Amino acid sequence: MCVWSAYTGGKPAAPELWESLKKIEGIWAGFYTGLVTCSEGKLYHGKVLGNTRIWKEKYDLSAFPGTCGLIHSRTNSGGDERWSHPFVGSAGKVALISQGCSGIFKDRAKAVFEKWGNEMLEAGKTFSSGIFGLPERYPVLAGGAQVHSAEVAVNAVEYWYEKLGDPMAAISKACSDLNTESATCFIFADRPGIIGFANCNQHMVYCRSREGVHLSITAIGLPDGFGMELPCNCVGLISPTELKLEKLGDRYETETSLPHGLLKLALDYIRNNPGCLLAHVTDAVLKPLLPAEKLNYRAGSAYRVLETLLAERLVKLVPEEKTGGAGAPGTVYRIYANGQ
Fold first, then answer.
1. How far is CA 39 from the centre of its chain?
2. Strands, DSSP E only, in 140-258?
3. Is the per-residue pLDDT at 135 higher than 80?
4. Sign of the dihedral through C-alpha 91, 94, 99, 100
5. What is the C-alpha separation between 250 and 279, in angstroms, rounded?
6. Range of the domain at 242
7. Residue 277 half-sphere exposure, CB side, CA atoms within 13 Å?
8. pLDDT tens figures, 282-302
9. CA distances to 31, 73, 80, 135 from 21, in Å
10. In a 3-state reduction of DSSP, which class is residue 217?
11. Residue 324: inside a domain, yes or no?
């Protein structure tokens, strides 16, 4: 799982996004880092293999102008610098960040992304993430190169945006067909005030402030640590003054309520396993309690549990730098009960 944040408003986006990502990069991710902003019809983007420390060694926030943007940190899940988010459509009109997995769609997700990817190739789109030798779970396109599924998605949205001229319609068309449990955000070069999004069975939250609109995969990334949760099966647009929502196609039923006693069970696990990761809590505590016959809301529940435990000051996050599989420094947040 990855983490991300987004912002649009009246202040420079890059510093707002940077402060948000520093709060959350190690919750699931911390091994690939990227930022994109929009200004005067152009997308400015930069990404690295490594954590925020490595990104800051290569880039300066002042090189990313504009008051609308996205920031992302990816898990230790393979690929080189090109497999960091954001991904930008080959025409430079749309940028994307995303987090999630194939989930309940795992038996058909790869084939669907390969179909869309090859159709985008035939339509003239190109892919910067093409690589050989990664695990076969990634889409393999004509010619044998594997590409990141997020780059397939951004090219598909850009393709439909060029056809329809409507960002919400383009997101809905592409994301309703691309089967994945994910939370994804988009910005458009010629529409610098809006952020588009699609959410299937993940946790997305937002808040409004005097400075603008902040979105994140977790309330921990918002300025005051809390916000409004967006529906887990939706597509939409958000700006400093407006929110538009529609249903994201047909999806399986999702159970989004927290099982009774979950907070206590999670806290007991953390106390008994000091220094655990959120992934450990999710698999050991949440997974057995959530209904297998529905879309399993493990990721959303995990964020909601962690947000609550932090808000009540029952736990703390301790960052740790470690080397990722691709050889670059990453960051993970270990969880401890307060007093340990």
1. 22
2. 181-188, 191-200, 205-209, 212-216, 228-229, 233-238, 243-247
3. no
4. negative
5. 28
6. 3-247
7. 16
8. 999 988 888 766 677 788 889
9. 12, 8, 21, 28
10. coil
11. no
CATH of the domain at 39: 3.60.20.10
Number of structural domains, the chain? 1
**Rounded Cα distance, 332 and 68, in Å:** 27
**Maximum C-alpha span of the chain:** 59
Q: Please confirm whether the linkage preceding 86 is cis (ω < 30° from 0).
A: yes
Whether residue 256 is contained in a domain is answered as: no
* pLDDT, tens digit, 9 for 90 and up, residues 145-181: 889 999 999 999 999 999 999 999 999 999 988 878 8
Cα–Cα distances in angstroms (integers) from residue 42 to residues 239, 265, 278, in the given order = 18, 48, 37
Between CA 326 and CA 333, with CA 328 as vertex, the angle to 5 degrees is 105
Residues paired with residue 333 on neighbouring β-strands, in sequence order? 319
Residue 284 is predicted with a pLDDT of 94
290 lies in some domain: no
Q: Report percent pLDDT > 70 for the chain.
A: 96
Count of residues for the chain? 340
Instruction: Examine residue 306 and state whether it is found in any structural domain, yes or no.
Output: no
Return the closest-CA partner of residue 13 out of 71, 85, 94, 55: 71
pLDDT digits (tens, 9 = 90+) for 302-336: 999 999 999 999 999 999 999 998 899 999 999 99
